[in-house]
Structure formats: C-alpha cells, structure tokens
Amino acid sequence: MIIIYNILIRLYSFSVRLASVFNPKARFFVKGRKNIFKKINQSIDKSQQIIWFHCASLGEFEQGRPVIETLKQKYPQYKILLTFFSPSGYEVRKNYAGADYIFYLPIDTRRNAIKFIKTVNPKLVFFVKYEFWYHYLNVLQKNKIPVYIFSAIFRKNQLFFKWYGGFYRNMLQKFDFLFVQNTESKELLNSINIKNVEIAGDTRFDRVYSIASQAKNIPIIDAFKQGKTTIIAGSTWKPDEELLVKFINSQNNNELKYIIAPHEIFVENIERIEKAIKKKTLRFSKADERNVLEAQVIIIDNIGMLSSLYKYGDIAYIGGGFGKGIHNVLEAATFGLPLFFGTNYHQFNEAVQLVNLKAAFVVNNFSDLEINFKNLLANKKLLESTGEKSKKHVVSNLGATGKIVTKCEKNLSQNQYAKTP
Fold first, then answer.
1. Best exposed site among 23, 232, 321, 381 by fewest CB in 10 Å?
2. What is the block-wise mean pLDDT of the chain (421 residues), using blocks of 10 residues?
3. CATH number at residue 177
C-alpha cells in the first residue's frame, strides 16, 4: 500500500504543477513550496525549542489558534512553527503574529519528511482536526517526538473503518493521543483498537467566544441600526443572495434593516447585488453617519469585519449552504442569534447540533426562508428564546483548549527549557 500511496502523492504533486499554469490557487501552492527547505534553513534558529502546529487550511487554523496562543503565553521559551497545506490558509495567515515561523508543508515524501523533521527538530507536534500524512507521522514516531491531533472528528464512512483501510488505521496508531469532538468519534476509534482517545470537544467554541468578547464597536453600523431589528447575512454566495434579495424586495416593513457581507467582494459582484435590491442600499466603504440613516441595506465591501458585525444582528443567515458547505456558524451563534443556512450543512457537526436544538433553520427554498423569517420577526419572545439556544450551545461547549493544554504539559515541563510550574 505504501507504494500506491507514494505514487498517488507524486501524481498529485505533478497534477498541481500542471494546473498552476492556469489556476491561481495551484500557482500559489507550487510557488510557495519553491526552495522551501532553503527558506526553512535560513529562518529556523536551531538553538530554540520548537512546538510545531500543522493546519490544512484557514478553518483548521482557527481551531488551532486557541491552543497556539495559550501555549505561547504559558511557555514563551518555545518557538511556534505553523505549517499549512493549502494556499487558502497560508496566504491569509502568513503574517500571523502568534507564530514565530510560518511555512507551507513540503509534500509528504519520505525524503521530505526526514529532512523537515531533522531541520525543525520539534519537541511537540499538533495536527489540527485532520491531515494524515504517512511519512511525517512515521518519522515523528521513529524519532519519539510526541504528536497529538485535536478537534478531530471521525465518521464511519471514512477509510479508517473499512475492511481495506489497514494502511490508514496504521497512521492513526502513530499519534500519541487523539482529542476528538464527540462520542461517536471516540467509539469509532475504540472499535479499531485505538484507545488513547479523549472527548475534548471543538476548540472553535473557545475561539469564537474569545472573538465575541473582543468584538469591536462599529459606529457606522450603530448609526445604521438605530435600534431596529437587523438581519445580517455573512459570507454569502450568489444562490444565498438571490433568496435574500427576493425576501428584502417582498417586504414593506421599513423598520427592518439588512446587512449583507458577500463572500466575494469584487466590484462586479457588489454591483450585481445592488442592482437587484429595490430598497435603498449603501456600500460600507461609502457610508458616513449621515447617509447611513437613509439606507435600509448595507453591503459590506471589505473583509475582516464579519465577526464583529454579528453583534449588531438579530437574525443571521450563513452563506455557502448551496455550494461546498456553510461558513462559520459559531461566530454568529456566540452572539445569541437564530441561524439560517442552506441544505449542505451535514458535514459540519456544530451546524447539525444547532439544527437539532432548533436554534438553526435549514433553507431548502424561498418558502422556507420567508416562513421562518416571518415567524421569528412576528414573535419577539420566540426570536429571543431561539437566539438564547445558540448562545447556550456555545457556552456549554467551552473548555477544549484547557483539556488539550493540560494533557500535553507533561511533555513540555520535562524539557529543560520549559516554564517552571
């Protein structure tokens, strides 16, 4: 099986190089790994003790961030190395101040894994949620370097649990400890004789709760809201926007306010949304405390504001559910908002839980959106109680970071450079 694995890795690398001719993301993937070992050698201070975190992309980084920042604060003697597989993570967070070194992860070949780990010589390693790279895990195990995975979630249809999945099960056995999100994941791992497992939960809850506590005041949005009921739509795509625009245009209630934060903020997309809406719209970049009073819809034409914007909402619509999958629902839930999203949400455990709690509503079509929006808007008590379910769910799931840090502290304190308890 290892031969097939190596062939697939090389085929993948070749296909990405081929795609880089016409695909910008693939181009970043290839360019970012060019002379990667030279960059690492020039950057890494080999006299320092290193904790290595690996994330597939941006979402996994947000899960890893609470652990990174807790260890950085508690053990400042260690340097933090952060690697990404995807350009979607690296290109956005390559200047993240919480890590001392940030690189693309070299492709998982035996030679690369040996060279990388010899150069970096980490004292402790964390993989976030998933990413199971055979050669890296194998070399770490041979060098007796402790490696953990956290915020992991497993499903019975994964290869690990198939009769022919021995090679993949072997990778799981190379982890010193696995922190999983739920009981199902633990039971699945136990069923294949992996016992070094603990249900710690999802570190994203800690992350969004921290974000909410630091949410910025946005005076323009304060002036826009004027204390009125506000529907905020975050990270929306065209199918989401078409439903929202239809609802906005169908309403005669001028007491309702809307904030739309599209996933794609290029000018043509903003103009498309503006032209479709029959109410008074205003781009955030053009808003001031006077003209914002006349607007009923604000369109956010920048990135980075969304997590703070949710504090001004009464209902949240989360985009992406008619495509590859919904965006972060917890950022809105932590502010105590009822949630709406499209049908492609089942692979997101937190979204499934919120639907089961009746804190979130699944939108199959415009009728679903309209009926449930109107029900909430017509019943203030229902609106508040539904939002409270969201907030309680976030609060009840806090604490994963503390469990993970406590478990790994033994490895850190054994090191001569570690912080004295």
1. 381
2. 94 94 93 96 93 94 95 94 95 94 97 97 95 96 97 94 94 96 96 96 93 90 95 96 97 92 94 97 94 95 90 97 93 97 93 96 96 96 97 96 92 55 34
3. 3.40.50.11720
The verdict on residue 404 lying in a domain is: yes
Cβ atoms of 150 and 124 within 8 Å: the answer is no
d(CA 175, CA 156): 19
Q: Please check whether residue 421 lies inside any domain of the structure.
A: no
Local structure of 106: helix, strand or coil: coil
Tokens of 318: 């989360």
Structure token pair of residue 57 = 């992309």
34 and 69: one domain? yes
Residue 206 falls within a domain, yes or no? no
Gap between the Cα atoms of 306 and 94, Å rounded: 20
Domain range for 243 is 211-396
Radius of gyration of the chain (CA): 23
Beta bridge partners, 234, equal: 261, 318
From residue 138, alpha-carbon distances to 2, 53, 116, 141 in Å are 12, 16, 13, 5
What is the number of structural domains in the chain? Answer: 2
Residue 275 resides in a domain: yes
Question: Chain-centre distance of CA 113, in angstroms?
Answer: 26
- Asked if 334 and 209 touch (Cβ cutoff 8 Å), the reply is yes
Q: Cα(152)–Cα(147) distance, rounded to whole angstroms? A: 14
